């Protein structure tokens, strides 16, 4: 390759074009070597998990939710992404029957597209959670394979899952203790504001596919963003965790005792 050809290639790659022919050739060679290594070691170089599980709960709501409104999870969707194959492998979806507010508000039906019939014929949350954990186990996630849960914002775990576990009087699940908030990773990586799902898609010239506020469609679109970020070389690590207080632990223990009493009676 002539010096001019090397310089033109370096320019194309936005690399420094100063130095002797020998140095320029070395710089180009190093770039290709690094690129090859990056592709081969995608997981280690970019600090990625081999699998991601995107979760986007839908919950009971009113048009204006009071700060202490007891949101109950009514849709539990998840999308499994394989980082190395760079594709969606599988999904999980189940509706849940709310108990505190068993009748969905018109606003909630309109927002989520979830019908009264769908929630009335659904299982209660603890059974759905057990089915989701069986789905994780079927894919050997958390055993043979490392994975991280991904959400858009902190609310899915910090508000919906936490609140639902209290309402259902069950322990807070392990998978929700640490997770990836994609909104944070996105704004740090692309150096932009913290955008909502629609605006994150627009920022990378994509449009929402499906129905917004359908939990499964929301999760599928988050997966599209995640896959684009993997391609662009982002590191996608845990950036949120829930701190359970000793009072939470005590409540969980009390609930466990009550469940045991119920079993005895
Ligand atoms: P999302 O993932 O944005 O679809 O929202 C999750 C849940 O947050 C919904 O199922 C509702 O319970 C609640 N929510 C979202 N947007 C609104 C809104 N504009 N007004 C009231 N509740 C909402
Ligand atoms: Mg949603």
Write structural notes for this entry.
The protein has helices at residues 3-12, 21-40, 42-45, 106-112, 116-120, 125-138, 155-168, 182-189, 197-203, 215-231, 246-264; strands spanning 51-55, 58-59, 73-82, 87-95, 147-151, 178-181, 240-241. The chain has 265 residues and is of the alpha/beta class. Strands 1, 2, 3, 4, 5, 6 and 7 form a 7-stranded mixed β-sheet that branches. A hairpin with a 4-residue loop joins strand 3 and strand 4. Helix 1 packs across helix 2 (21-40). The longest helix is centred in the N-terminal third of the chain and has 20 residues, at 21-40. The chain is elongated and about 75 Å long. Mean pLDDT is 90; it is low at 252-265. Bound molecules: adenosine monophosphate and magnesium ion (MG). Residues 56, 58, 213, 215, 218 line the site of magnesium ion.
Quick structural gist:
The chain has 265 residues and is of the alpha/beta class. The chain has helices spanning 3-12, 21-40, 42-45, 106-112, 116-120, 125-138, 155-168, 182-189, 197-203, 215-231, 246-264; strands at residues 51-55, 58-59, 73-82, 87-95, 147-151, 178-181, 240-241. The longest helix has 20 residues, at 21-40.
């Amino acid at each position: 390759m002539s010096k001019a050809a090397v310089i033109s290639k370096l320019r194309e790659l936005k690399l420094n074009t100063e130095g002797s022919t020998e140095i320029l050739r070395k710089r180009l060679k190093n770039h290709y070597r690094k690129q090859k290594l990056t592709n081969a070691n995608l997981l280690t170089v970019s600090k990625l998990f081999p699998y991601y599980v995107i979760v986007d709960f839908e919950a009971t709501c009113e048009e204006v939710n009071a700060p202490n409104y007891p949101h109950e999870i009514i849709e539990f969707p998840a999308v499994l992404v394989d980082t190395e194959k760079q594709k969606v492998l599988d999904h999980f979806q189940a509706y849940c029957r709310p108990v505190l507010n068993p009748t969905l508000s018109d606003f909630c039906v309109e927002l989520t597209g979830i019908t009264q019939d769908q929630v009335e014929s659904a299982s209660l949350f603890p059974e759905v959670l057990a089915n989701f954990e069986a789905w994780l186990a079927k894919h050997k996630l958390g055993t043979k394979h490392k994975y991280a849960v991904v959400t858009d914002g902190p609310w899915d775990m910090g508000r919906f899952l936490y609140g639902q576990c209290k309402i259902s009087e069950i322990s807070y699940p392990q998978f929700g203790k640490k997770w990836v908030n994609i909104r944070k990773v996105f704004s740090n990586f692309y150096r932009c504001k913290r955008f909502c799902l629609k605006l994150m898609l627009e920022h990378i010239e994509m449009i929402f596919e499906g129905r917004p506020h359908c939990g499964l469609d929301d999760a599928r679109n988050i997966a599209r963003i995640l896959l684009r970020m993997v391609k662009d070389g982002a590191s996608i690590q845990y950036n949120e965790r829930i701190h359970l207080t000793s009072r939470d632990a005590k409540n969980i223990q009390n609930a466990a005792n009550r469940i045991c009493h119920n079993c005895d009676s």
